[in-house]
Amino acid sequence: MGFFKKLFGGRVDSPEDDRKEQETRNFDMLKYDGVKAMHMGETDYAVKCFNRALEMREDLEVRDYLSQTLIRTGELLPAYEQLQKLAEAEPDNKQIFVRMADVAYMMEDYRAMADACEKAMLIDRDDPQVLNFYARASIGLGDTVNAIAMLTKAIITCEHRMDGEDENIRREALATAFSSRLLRGETLLKTGDCDGADEDAEWAVNHTEGNEDALLLKARVEAGKGASDSAIAYYNKVIEANPFCVAAFQERGDIYLAKGDKELAEADRKQVIELSPETDGNTAGQHAPEEGKGIQQQVEKAYRSIDPYGIGGLEK
Length: 316
Prior knowledge:
With 316 residues, the chain is mainly alpha-helical. The protein has 16 helices and no strands. The protein has three domains: 18-89, Alpha Horseshoe (Serine Threonine Protein Phosphatase 5, Tetratricopeptide repeat), CATH 1.25.40; 91-192, Serine Threonine Protein Phosphatase 5, Tetratricopeptide repeat; 208-288, Serine Threonine Protein Phosphatase 5, Tetratricopeptide repeat (Alpha Horseshoe), CATH 1.25.40.
């Protein structure tokens, strides 16, 4: 058969060609099985498939899938290492650095987060999401002044984009503006700037309906200004939005106690114990900055998961 193929110009596959074709089929199967497993939540199997595929050949798409899967399994450092390799291969892909910053944030490695943001800003210095992340990194590094500056720039940029015609851009701009307003408001409140914090709280409340985080910030601002009755009214709204918000019961109880309403304070204390059995209900000073930690712990705990519109991805 091989003789006639050669005679009439047909192609004869060599053993090396057969080996390469089989390797390609195996690679494609591993990649397909890995993606399928990833979408089905079978993360351990997905990681095995992706790692085996990468042993066979370098593939940036597979490496991206691997990083996503590792993030889902909480293996943040290995995920970060995969993103570093992607960044080396595509140094102009801003979204890789954005994801690196996000992973560094989850690892609480604020120096690495800042470095990733700086590299992203070399590509696009006005990206509001990058500015927001850089602010979070700055807070983690104790640089409140730079954090507020970055958040202010992010907010201004977002507000310009919110007036555009592209619906997706408007939606992303609103999400980042909301996150930035909350973070700046909480940061300003911790520094004692209640008026500045109130501006952000008002914006957040007016641009959302019944949002727990916005209402909680507004309640805290009112409490910081000494407006007890107004603060209580907003804490009531927080609890209406989320009846399981321990912080709202804690902080409202503190205000009741300061006003001398011991019965209401005790009711909130009992509610705190019911919702959070590990506490004894003693809430005094729990929202104040912790000695030696500045504002970092309070702000980061409050806003770690804010991404209300699900922004992400590595596409340019």
